[in-house]
Amino acid sequence: MPFIPHTEDEVRDMLGAIGVSSIDELFDEIPAELRIDGLNGVLPALNEAGIKRLMATRAAADTGGLCFIGAGAYDHHIPAAVWAVATRGEFYSAYTPYQAEASQGTLQVIYEYQSMMAELTGLDASNASLYDGATAFAEACLMAVRANRKSKSRRILTTRGMSPAYRAVASALLQGQGLELVELPMADGVTDPQALEALGEQDFAALAIQQPSFLGTLEAVDALTDLAHAQNMLVIGVCNPTSLALLKPPGQWGDAGADVACGEGQPLGIPMSSGGPYFGYMVCRQALVRQMPGRIVGRTVDLDGRPGFTLTLQAREQHIRRSKATSNICTNQGLMVTAATIYMALLGGEGLRRVALQSHANTRALVDGVASLDGVRVAFDNYFHEAVLVLDRPVAPVLESLAQQGVLGGYDLGADYPELGDALLVCATEQRTPADIDNYVRSLGDTLARSRAA
Amino acid sequence: MDSLIFERSRAGRGSRGLAPASPPASELPAQLVRDTAPALPEVSELQVVRHYTRLSQRNFSIDTHFYPLGSCTMKYNPKVCNSLAMLPGFTDRHPYAPAKQGQGFLACMYELQEMLKAATGMQAFSLTPMAGAQGEFAGVAMIMAYHQSRGDTERREIIVPDAAHGTNPATATMCGCTVREIATGAHGDVDLDALRAAVGPHTAGIMLTNPSTLGVFERRIPEIAAIVHEAGGLLYYDGANLNAILGRALPAAMGFDVMHINLHKTFSTPHGGGGPGSGAVGVNARLAPFLPVPMVAQGDDGYRWLTEADCPQSIGRLSAFMGNAGILLRAYVYMRLLGPEGMRRVADYATLNANYLMARLAAAGFRLAYPDRRASHEFIVSLKDLTKATGVTAMDMAKGLLDRGFHAPTTYFPLLVPECLLIEPTETEALEELDAFADALIELRDEARSNPESLKAAPLTLPVRRLDDVRAAKQLDLAWQPTH
Amino acid sequence: MTEAPDNLKYTPDHEWLRLEDDGTVTLGVTDHAQQALGELVYVELPEAGRELEPGEACAVVESVKAASDVYSPLAGAVTAINDALADTPELVNDSPYADGWLLQLRPADPKTLEDLMDPEAYARFLAESED
Question: Is residue A77 packed enough to be buried (19+ CB in 10 Å), middle (13-18) or exposed (0-12)?
Fold first, then answer.
């Protein structure tokens, strides 16, 4: 019996000690009409060799295709040491560190993670992570409403460059508490600070800026931050963590810096894995730390004065549940945070900066390559490691054709940004070689030429 | 405490070869760019591996210790679940890769949806919630959406037993509901008179765990369901304790309209030091239109995603992509290894182990919270008498267990039972482990009577002794600061 | 056995209030409250000048175990806050009725103070809640 260690003799002895004659008897408190004899519709058991064969076939079916898609999940190189260490049983099969003395490993990892995220974002206090970037964004909106002393507004202003998926998730999570997201218009792929200024008299709890935007463009974060602060809003920066090794972090935006930084941690050593598990990070100014949701690890001392780590500020989690806006989030993505911490330690600041630089350079090379093709226009000159291409025909069949040539050509922007026309979001990380990029340019060129000839 | 990784950092050290060698300089505008690279540690690969390996050795884990944490279901996490979920074909797939190139993954997700339906009796499942709490949110949000869709806008009250886990009322509040607590009776069942008095035209629903957080089966669940349904409310099942009844009873047959499953409990996905979890949510036909997207459907030409366009009444998206895909793959592998008989064995042996341990401790004179009831997959011991006699508390006994090489059970939950230990052995533990644990508790109790101070001082054999929580909260030290 | 000084008024949420000679009202939490919370690690106080409605949460007292809102039963404007609590929140535990005061306010209508519980009523209230 897989995973069940009991022998027949042992079962007999145990039943005897309990004072029953069968395991069935142990279920006699369940009303008879609710008891079932077995399950229908569960696939028959496979042994380990069998499931291995099945999964190998299925994984093989999904293999292939050069990835040029970004749009919130990124194909970065993950050093072998990351998961070799993160999947050690002592990390993998440990629980939440409630018994602190028995969990100093996990707690110290989280403390180191918090320290690294504070450094990366230029802010003061990080939590131990949230479920993903989208829910971190939703939590940041709730936090801004709680924390803003100068405004009682339950409205959050966001740039149009904020990920559509993040806005959708925030709406689903927040509408039960009467929070409203309002979008600032976009021009030329970025937010015009004048549009923010024009809102002037209206009351918002916060301005949320995604940098780089979902379209890859770079926003005027300094001007936007200063304007928002002047209008009594808190500023939430939603940032790709790889980009933070190169770009000015939220803590340094404008005169006072952003108030909260959050986003998706997947680029930091987490495989793309069809969309999860990832983790959301959140860091804030020290003054706001008591409003921050999620677990937080603090360093303290034990009875002998030795340094040690423990979960702290836990009372605030319950309190946060009772105050102006509430959240039930209490978990963190422990395993993913462990992996990300190891990744950041392996790469260091300089290594991460190089990943960012190479990703930017590769996307430049890709864009330069396709810009010369007939039927392709580069929408915006200003981008980090993703860029918008506008085609002279619908995107979906082009992507289909590229896929058949072994190229995953990008993300179709038609549904989310119809104003851009037949637009495609492409991304080339440091993983894409010059040959890969040539491959893309050639394949796209062939596709466009073929359908033109038809 | 081991040194922090930052303290091993030396300028110029660092793992060359893990990042691109010499990327071109960027021409990005200077005012948007950092002055210097972030000050992350500069250490060698060996230093990183050694540092984090040594840290891991400071943890208790299922792989190293018996971990009878009540309500957490700390069963063995099979290694094969991890290795197969991390096959490159799965890990390297972008979430927006075309469905045609994801048929392997989608097949696993579809079959997982189907098996969860079979295991619970529910008609439809969404795999997207990323934790039990998110599953709860989805469940209550769907209940509210259902009432709204019928114009029943006065129904805004969620009933919760006083023994419920804290996330239940928090979830209700998040969905814009008010919470109404009802009492639990002396034998661990919900008080039906209190329930009858509590329901009415304002009732949106009730949130229940079964077996309850008290470790006992809610025997009158059919009546509870009838009372709530007759009043126009719906029933939400918190699946935290599903391990106790897997293959033995179906939540849908009990009358529940919606439920979440904690895949990291019942289906053995890794706890990972605090996450990731996964809280798949299942419903009967009434609530199916409201399920969060995306879900997987099977068609003539393979598997495809169902999105907002296919599900116009959906409560929406709860994650940027589709939830914790890699975790779902682990749960899928686990369920395939069990098959239908294996799932029933889970409940059988989890219940056998719990009842055996309960019998041993009762025979040794420990006070059970519900001595006349069967244990489900867990049971509660109250140390109130010991505390009164010796001053040694449940927390002290927990710390003493750590010194004896066992992770402590859950303490001080549920709040209803003073000085309690909530003990859940799970089905993957052998008899000698259970006996060793019982023996250890008996020894600790003897020590509490003869030398209480030794337990107040526990733990003594771990990397740190008890930590100053007050100082941790007062003098916040949440991030390393360089000393110069 | 918890103290309940004679010259104070009390609320069911375990706040005490004292009318001062100059017409302001000092507010704090009772001995019962500080015992229930345990050692305080942080106190969040309102800004001076803030206008309070009756029943509005005006402060938070936080221990390792719990964080509790503190409510003002009266309408009024905050005139002073106890700055010492920023560094030494445990003053609330050591001296809840004296050095551990939280804030002072100028009530819109001082007569509303009379509607609150006197010490005997509070003591009865505590005894009943413990059943």
Answer: middle
